[in-house]
Amino acid sequence: MPSSTRPSRVKKPSMHAAAQASRASARPRETSAGGTSAHPAIDAQVVLVLQGGGALGAYQAGVYEALHDAGIEPDWVIGTSIGAINGAIIAGNRPADRMSRLRAFWERVTWKGFADHHNTWLSAFAPAAANIPASLTAAWSAWAAWMPAYEQWLRNLSIMSHGIPAFFTPRADAWLGLQVPVGLEHAAFYRTEPLRETLASLIDFDYLNGKATRLTVGTVGVGSGQMRYFTNRDEALDVQHVMASAAFPPGFPSVRIDGEAYWDGGIYSNTPLEAVLDDRPRHSSVIFTVQLWPAHGDEPASIHEAMSRQRDIQYSSRAESHLERQRQIHRLRHVIRELGKHLPENERDTKAVKELLGWGCGTTMQVIELDAPSFGSDELHKDIDFSADGIRRRWQAGYADAQRMIGRAPWRAEPDPMEGISIHRSEPQTA
């Protein structure tokens, strides 16, 4: 694929304190949509696929920062919900500005309520705890274990009742009753005008629609119930498209585009990997797919854990089965291509055979899976954990996981010529 050469950039110091010790010094060139990666170790289209998952999206920001620091800039970003927001900030800014804009977004949506006090309290009481009677030791241990969960519960309650000023705020008319007809654009618990203003200030839509980096956002039609992907390759995108991809009902209201109402594509397909593998024309790619919801998990032992596990399964969106289906389809494309090589030349030139061989393909796809770890005691509401501590830990985890994968560089391995798709999964890390 053709690539475009643009001026190199001077590296700016990173603000991410946890990762400063391991930063790479080289900066990449900008690349054009559909072009080859500027990173010398990747001679293919680089694609970043981002799931939806609210506050869990801080992990995606950490993953991108590691790629950015390694000199790997995506040619194409595909996202749903928070993945669409992160993706639009990445694709909608010049590479030199991406990290500052991404960090600005996450700083604005960080919950500014009470701080985490349990560690301070525990430290203050530690000397006294050493002298408490043995009969109270169990009670002290239970209290110490309970405090973090209690504070997290209070944070989540505050976020749900008050919202986040730069993201969403409660709708007063939601209290009129769930069955009161308020119209589709108002049929939600929260207003998202603050998010619109935040995105408009952080995304350069003129640059985005210049197509230096391709962006695709996933939505689902409210009336049709069908997935629809909007991409700047085919049409100009604006803040409405990003808002539509993040319009998760019934929390957030639907968004109209050209008269049609859309919701968050995550309620239909939260892992938009098929957008890459079904693309035409198809290009050999290294695909970094960032999973926020674990498909695998322990058996729940309580109703709370059962509810959490149900959400993990639902929003992991059958990613593994979708990928396996795509691998089977892509293998058939390779088989068709190989069979065509064994046909006599005069038969290959016939119209009917040419049409059949057109289904063949010789591209290779290196899928790099990065899975967010679990944090905290309230896994059920982890996607609304916009606390500074929660965002920091997920961001750091994303950076560390991506950095390990970059160090492995599995895309350098020669793929099986008949398979077409190779899958490389990150090793689970202890949170």
Automatic annotation (TrEMBL):
Keywords: Hydrolase, Lipid degradation, Lipid metabolism. It holds the Pfam family DUF3734. GO terms for biological process: lipid catabolic process. A motif (DGA/G) lies at residues 264-266. Residues 1-37, 412-431 are annotated as: Disordered. InterPro entries: Acyl_Trfase/lysoPLipase, DUF3734, NTE, PNPLA_dom. Residues 48-277 form the PNPLA domain. This is NTE family protein. It comes from Paraburkholderia diazotrophica.
